[in-house]
Design a protein that fits this description.
This is POP1 protein. One of its GO terms (biological process) is tRNA 5'-leader removal. The protein has helices at 7-10, 58-68, 87-98, 158-165; strands spanning 16-21, 30-39, 48-52, 73-77, 129-133, 140-142. The chain is α+β, with helices and mostly antiparallel strands. The strands form two sheets. Strands 1-2-3 form a three-stranded antiparallel β-sheet, with no helix packed on it. A hairpin with an 8-residue loop joins strand 1 (16-21) and strand 2 (30-39).
Amino acid sequence: GLTFEEACCLSGRFEGSLDLYQADRYPEAMLGPVTFIWKPRDGSENRQLWIWVHPALKQDVLGELKAIFQCSEPEEICIPEPVTPSVQEEKQKDVVQSLGKRRKEDKGGEKAVPVKKIIGDGTRDPLQACSWISPATGIMISDRSMEILRYRLIGPLAHCVLTDTLKAAALQTV
């Protein structure tokens, strides 16, 4: 089957997809489908391989990659910024209280203000390392699941959405 070293994908011009298996366990232990793209060479020996997986597969794939490349020590620790209520949330809280709506009361009898805070995608503990490096191979694995890396628009109107959203830049000569 296909591998990350597929000839047409090595240049970085084409995206590839394959089914990923645990090391030395083919064909029994499939981790799942992945898509990948090689970052084009910039003149140096170092290359980057970007791999996209479904969030349900992320922990298994990440654990397998860390084991294969012997990555153990964290390069950096991700510490999220403390979440503070926004001005809009404070205004909403004041409006709801002024309308006299009933609030849920907790065991202490105090009025609880339910504010749902979601940090990240739920697939990584906020205090878990983002990058791991292998002292033996020099390979670094980075978890970029908390960042927007690309958009995928699918469906019959995807092209229309793109053409209505993107406009060609005007040429400027100096």
